[in-house]
Structures are given as structure tokens and as C-alpha cells.
């Protein structure tokens, strides 16, 4: 597991809203649910993503946009369109519920002539937990990926799948959306002149990249800088210097923050687990040391974090 792939452990299209819409101008789809992450791909035609409070973004055929929530956004034929927006969200899953051209895995051929229609595929991702938040924090409000990248074959498969109705279609669409999401974010991070997160760029370094892979593969291991350097086949001084330069913090500081991210989710997801059990899972020998580290890094105790998660209240995290 690498640092980038690890962030997708809780990101799955299964159970998320999925729609394929074929629209003829004028049209406007208003995505109202405020999903943490929404992927939009244009299979035919073109349109504009209009995020709340931000400038419109043109989306052409074969292009993909990833929109970060919770703010809503609109997909329109033209900025300032005269179309009455159709609210698309959780309750827009069938035509009788208001989604006349939008529902889970449904393809409507539209009423326009050849070349007039725009076909849009949308997947909304209900990210949960601190790992999901770590991914969201690395993304801009809207990222747009053009044609010619690794996502092009996925779009071809999507276009073929939404045009038919076969057993198991939702499973296929879910996996294709996951594939397209990873390709899109990776393409955006790798674009010329891009500014990816430090930990992402550092993965290309043979030394620091190997260290990051080890920390994510074995987060509970009793790591020291020396043991990590030994596994990466460099000196302790070399690893410490290069890691701090490329990632922006020492290896064990990075590891402590990642362990607390994992622990924060475990405390909520495994309600029956004791704090001591969670501590051991992320590499701490005793609950006291773990609790002290958790409060130092996250600003609240493990018990306070768990209570806040139970009540769905926001957890205060240090800036």
C-alpha cells in the first residue's frame, strides 16, 4: 500500500448515487446533496460545471471533473441558461421522484437531434471518516481532467455500459467509477506545473517513496528512523534529511499523524473496541501513551472523539 492508494481504502462507489443523463438544451441539473466528492464525466456534448460561489468550468466531451463538497453545484448547457434547474440528489433516483432524466444506472436517449445532446455520467461518493477527510483536504474545490490520459479507456467502458441494461450492471459501473476517480485525481496531481501534496510528490523519490510505502503497509510496526532507514537501504541521516525536505516533516512525525488518522476512524467504526485495543492496532503498547499522543495531535482525547462521533458532532482538530 502506498500513501496515495491508502487514502482510497474507504472510497467506493458501492451504494453511492449514480446517474447517466442525456440532455438537450436548455438544461440545468442542480446537485443538491452536498456529497463530499462528486465525479462528473461527459460522454457526448459539453456543458459547464457551476460551483457555488465560484467561476464556471467548461467540461467538454471526454473530460472529467471532480467536485469537492459540501457546497452544491450545477451542471448547465451554458452559464446563465434559461432552463429551470432539476434538483438531483438522493431523492432523484427515479423519474417519478422528480429526476426525469436522472436516476441510478439509467440512460435516457433524449429528444434532440444528432449532435445536440449531452450525455453526463455522475457518481457521488459518500466519504466518511478521517481518511476520507485527508483525501478531500488534498483536492481543490473543482479539478478538471482533459482527454488523452489514462482515464480515456475507462470512459469508453462507461459509455458502452450505460447504453445497455445487463445483469450486474451496477457492480460494473461502481468499479468503473472508482477506476475513473483514481485516474482523474492522479492525472491532476501529475499535470505539468501542478502542485500536488508533498507526500504525493515524495513517492517518486526512491528513498522517501520506499519509506512512505513501508509506513503505510505496516503502520503499527515499532518504527524508528534507524529501522526505517535500514529497510530503505540508506543511512539514518540520509533518510531523515530527504524525508523532511520532501514531505515537510520528520518520518516519525508523519507516522504519528497517520496512526492518529487511522485511530480516529477505528474509534468510531469499532464501537465495541476499547481504547487500549485501538491503541495496540495502531502501534501503541499502552492506552496512556496512545491517549496522550492522540490528544496532542488531534486536540481531543480518544473518548471525547468517540462521543462526538456517536452524536455526529464535529470534532475540533488543531489548525
Automatic annotation (TrEMBL):
Keyword Manganese (UniProt): no
Top-rank taxon: Bacteria
UniProt keyword S-adenosyl-L-methionine, yes or no: no
Pfam (any one): HTH_18
Annotated keywords: DNA-binding, Transcription, Transcription regulation
InterPro entries: AraC_lig, AraC_XylS_family_regulators, Homeodomain-like_sf, HTH_AraC, HTH_AraC-typ_CS, Tscrpt_reg_AraC-type_HTH
HTH araC/xylS-type domain residues: 209-308
Protein name: AraC family transcriptional regulator
Lineage summary: Bacteria, Bacillati, Actinomycetota, Actinomycetes, Pseudonocardiales
Amino acid at each position: 500500500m502506498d500513501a496515495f492508494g491508502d487514502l482510497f481504502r474507504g472510497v467506493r462507489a458501492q451504494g453511492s448515487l449514480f446517474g447517466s443523463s442525456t440532455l438537450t438544451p436548455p438544461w440545468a441539473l442542480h446537485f443538491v446533496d452536498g456529497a463530499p466528492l462528486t465525479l462528473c464525466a461527459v460522454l457526448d456534448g459539453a456543458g459547464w460545471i457551476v460551483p457555488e460561489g465560484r467561476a464556471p468550468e467548461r467540461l467538454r466531451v471526454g473530460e472529467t471533473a471532480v467536485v469537492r463538497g459540501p457546497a452544491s453545484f450545477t451542471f448547465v448547457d451554458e452559464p446563465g441558461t434559461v432552463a429551470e434547474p432539476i434538483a438531483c440528489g438522493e431523492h432523484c433516483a427515479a423519474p417519478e421522484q422528480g429526476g426525469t432524466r436522472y436516476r441510478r444506472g439509467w440512460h435516457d436517449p433524449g429528444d434532440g437531434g444528432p449532435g445536440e445532446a449531452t450525455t453526463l455520467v455522475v457518481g457521488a461518493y459518500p466519504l466518511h471518516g478521517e481518511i476520507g477527510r485527508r483525501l478531500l483536504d488534498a483536492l481543490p474545490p473543482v479539478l478538471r481532467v482533459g482527454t488523452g490520459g489514462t482515464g480515456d479507456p475507462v470512459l469508453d467502458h462507461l459509455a458502452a455500459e450505460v447504453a445497455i441494461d445487463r445483469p450486474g450492471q451496477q457492480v460494473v459501473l461502481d468499479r468503473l467509477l472508482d477506476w475513473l476517480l483514481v485516474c482523474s485525481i492522479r492525472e491532476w496531481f501529475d499535470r505539468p506545473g501542478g502542485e500536488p501534496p508533498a507526500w504525493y510528490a515524495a513517492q517518486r523519490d526512491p528513498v522517501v517513496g520506499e519509506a512512505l510505502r513501508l509506513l503505510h503497509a505496516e503502520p503499527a510496526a515499532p518504527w524508528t528512523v534507524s529501522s526505517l532507514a535500514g529497510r530503505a537501504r540508506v543511512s539514518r541521516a540520509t533518510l531523515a534529511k530527504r524525508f523532511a525536505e520532501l514531505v515537510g516533516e520528520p518520518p516519525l512525525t508523519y507516522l504519528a499523524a497517520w496512526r492518529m488518522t487511522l485511530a480516529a476512524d477505528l474509534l468510531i467504526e469499532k464501537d465495541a473496541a476499547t481504547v487500549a485495543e485501538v491503541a495496540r492496532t495502531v502501534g501503541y503498547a499502552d492506552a496512556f501513551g496512545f491517549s496522550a499522543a492522540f490528544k496532542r495531535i488531534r486536540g481531543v482525547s480518544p473518548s471525547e472523539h468517540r462521543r462526538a462521533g456517536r452524536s455526529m458532532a464535529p470534532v475540533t482538530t488543531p489548525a
